Amino acid sequence: MTSTEPEAPVEPTSTKRLEEEGEIAADYLEELLDIADLDGDIDIDVDHGRAAVEIVSEDPADRSLRRLAGADGEVLDALQELTRLAVQAKTGERSRLMLDVAGYRSARRAELVTVASEAIERVKESGAPVALAAMNPFERKVVHDAVASAGLSSDSEGVEPERHVVIRPA
């Protein structure tokens, strides 16, 4: 006997599941803020198919949360990985959650788009590939996206921690 009812479409990552990841992450991060005696609010969103969580300060002049980002984002990268592991421990599934602290990632994204734009122009003018400095996975993704939207191609080359983006003509 066959059913005439259509099956519900299966989303690879449902918004409900991503919101749940955000809530679990927020609980974990709130405990961390309490332990570290830091003030911050947690914003949860879903962005480009992944949970996005940001720790923000009520007072824009308060720079104490910047310690959770670190000088070059290394503390933020570690905190994001710990948060992903906390989510995985609760859900049993790997998380691709993105974490930002005090706007560090959004500011870094803007810087990287500028770097990528300048390199894209050099490639267009010279026709030769341009290799950028070593970057972490988040940074490389931002550059790859900017290169793709400019109609050029890019690859990641090298081995961590020296993995970098090479931009090539289309």
Mean pLDDT across the residues is: 91
- What is the count of β-strands? 6
The end-to-end span amounts to: 53 Å
Q: Whole-number radius of gyration?
A: 19 Å
* Structural class by sheet pairing and helices: alpha+beta
Largest sheet: 3 strands, mixed
Order of helices and strands: HEEHEHEHEE
Quaternary assembly: single chain
Question: How much strand content do the residues show?
Answer: 15-25%
Count of individual helical segments: 4
Described by the principal axes of the CA atoms, the overall outline is globular
Largest beta sheet: what is the strand line-up? 1-2-3
Weakly predicted, low-confidence segments: 1-6
Helix content: 40-55%
What does this structure look like?
The chain is an alpha+beta fold and 170 residues long. It has four helices and six strands; from the N terminus they run αββαβαβαββ. A three-stranded mixed sheet has the order 1-2-3, sandwiched between helices. Helix 1 packs across helix 2 and helix 3 packs across helix 4. The longest helix is centred in the C-terminal third of the chain and has 23 residues.
